[in-house]
Design a protein that fits this description.
CATH architecture: Alpha-Beta Complex
Order of helices and strands: HEHHEEEHHHEEEE
Largest sheet: 5 strands, antiparallel
Strand order of the largest sheet: 4-8-7-6-5
Structural class: alpha+beta
CATH topology: Ribosomal Protein L22, Chain A
Distance between the termini: 46 Å
Bound molecules: coenzyme A
CATH class: Alpha Beta
Number of helices: 6
Mean pLDDT: 95
CATH superfamily: 4'-phosphopantetheinyl transferase domain
Shape: globular
Low-confidence stretches: none
């Protein structure tokens, strides 16, 4: 059985952020067995569904890491929740009920990355006020799926900035411009992002390493 979706693969390729490798996997029975001993400890109290999704995400991440010259190794979950990456690597994991994704980059290019995946379904109207600021609501243009896009982008942004700022963020602490592909966080940090919509919404947020003063274009 194939563990990838061609439609989703195309959508992920369309994200095309230079230097960021993104992959996905359809979660299947047995993916929980991919959790290595150093990873399992964090999931000791988790139900099978959670262990399976986290195992699937790590299968994807390990494959992507090999492209960065990294040998197969554990990606433990820290007590703060974020994954612990090998030296020199920035990355992020996400999963919904059926698909796991990972994004990996070199710290030489990116200070941090974040990824999220959501089903391509409208956001529950009751959740829209919680997720979208007044400004964002004005720009949703009555497209019910855009609320869910906003949700995915904010989760991806949170995952990208938490390892840098160690600050909990509420949805209204992040102001997103879907048109500009940028999000501004409460502390003033600006994060770029891209998203695609196919069977799922995939959003990737990234904080590039600032250019060194005097470095050429
Ligand atoms: C981090 C968070 C966004 C993850 O969302 P989720 O819907 O539970 O799960 P996802 O499948 O999208 O992502 C899970 C992965 O996020 C990663 N993650 C968890 N906490 C993280 C953190 N603080 N920083 C970065 N990544 C984190 C982990 O890799 C996890 O995978 P794992 O359990 O297999 O290791 C959520 O748990 C959280 O803490 N939310 C509070 C903050 C928030 O959402 N604010 C609104 C947006 S600004």
């Amino acid at each position: 059985m194939t563990a990838t979706s061609p439609t989703l693969q195309c959508a992920i390729e369309a994200l095309s952020v230079p230097g960021i490798a993104i992959g996905h996997r359809l979660i299947v029975d047995g993916d929980e067995l991919a959790l290595l001993p150093d990873e399992i400890v964090a999931f000791a109290g988790s139900v099978l569904k959670v262990r399976r999704a986290s195992g699937a995400a790590r299968i994807v991440a390990r494959k992507l890491l090999s492209r960065f010259g990294q040998a197969e190794r554990a990606i433990p979950k820290s007590t703060a929740g974020m994954p612990v990456w090998p030296e020199g690597i920035a990355g992020s994991l996400a999963h919904d009920a059926t698909v796991a994704v990972a994004a990996i980059a070199s710290l030489r290019e990116y200070m941090s990355v974040g990824i999220d995946i959501e089903p391509a379904e409208p956001l529950d109207p009751d959740l829209l006020d919680m997720v979208a600021t007044v400004n964002e609501r004005r720009n949703l243009q009555d497209d019910p799926c855009r609320g869910r896009v906003l949700f995915a982008v904010k989760e991806a942004v949170y995952k990208a900035v938490y390892p840098l700022d160690w600050t909990f963020l509420d949805h209204h602490d992040v102001e997103v411009s879907l048109a500009a592909g940028t999000a501004v966080v409460r502390n003033g940090r600006t994060v770029s992002f891209r998203y695609s919509v196919a069977t799922h919404i995939v959003a990737v947020a990234f904080v590039p390493v600032p250019p060194r003063p005097g470095a050429g274009p």
